[in-house]
Amino acid sequence: MNLLPFISVLIGAILWGTTGTAQSYLPESVHPLTVGALRLAGGGLILLFFAIAMRRVNFGEWPWRATLIAAVAMALFQPFFFGSVRLTGVAVGTVTGIGSAPVFAGLIEWIILRRRPSRRWVMATVLAVAGCALLLLTGDDVSVNPSGVLLALGAGLTFAVYSMTSKIVLEFANPAAAVGVVFTISALLLSPFLFIYPLDGLRSQEGISVIVYIAVAATAVAYLLYSSGLKELPAATAVTLALAEPLTAAILGVAIVGEELNFFAWMGVGLLLAGLIVLTFGKRGTDEERTPYFRKQIREEKE
Description:
The protein is mostly helical. It has 14 helices and no strands. It has helices at about 5-15, 20-25, 30-55, 65-90, 90-110, 120-135, 145-170, 175-190, 195, 205-230, 235-240, 245-255, 265-280, 295-300. It is globular and about 50 Å long. It starts with a helix and ends with a helix.
């Protein structure tokens, strides 16, 4: 059993989980959408330049349709996610957005790819999503805004679409090249936000350091690891493993920011961890070894 793709996705998600803690060091005047645009631009260009320097970019048979869909999905994820957080709070927005993504990914694989979810994936996803829900019970007042919840569901859907279409791109391209091209296009789509919101808070040494960290570690390295694992795993599996992000964020919130979790929230941490363990180390059936190879399917259709 090759655990490397699972570990790669998990490490990528853990790095994502550091984003919130890193952003807490930015001035409140810095809008989250500005951070989203800069992280995609920085991370995308870093990986694109690296792929070009290593001669790993081949545009001869590049799947531009899937690339554009992935780029639009990632660009839409930013306003959906940050909009939901603004309307319904960090807890509800984050848990609804990230927690719904595996469900959407499983439905897309089932309906479009006709790949029925495995029992192991269903069990792991139920445990992980339940754990995310319990993380809401941190002792703080939780307000549910219907519009915010809809935006959060939009964030979950767009992340699932990004993962699914990125898997198609990864059949034709190196992970660094795939993420670099997709994120560069996404950054161009989000570039108007850089002119809408003020950038004053980013001109300090601390602001620059935080943005560099988010762009390099929490975006370029994190998505490179995620995409490397995604290339070898079903998209629904990778998206469920990405729930290590809220787990990491919760633990860092306690260890670094000084937040406190009550009994139910710690139960949520345990369920989340249990779901990730089941998905990573649980016994896989023969049907789970069959991942959809889009490149092979396309070539067979041409022949």
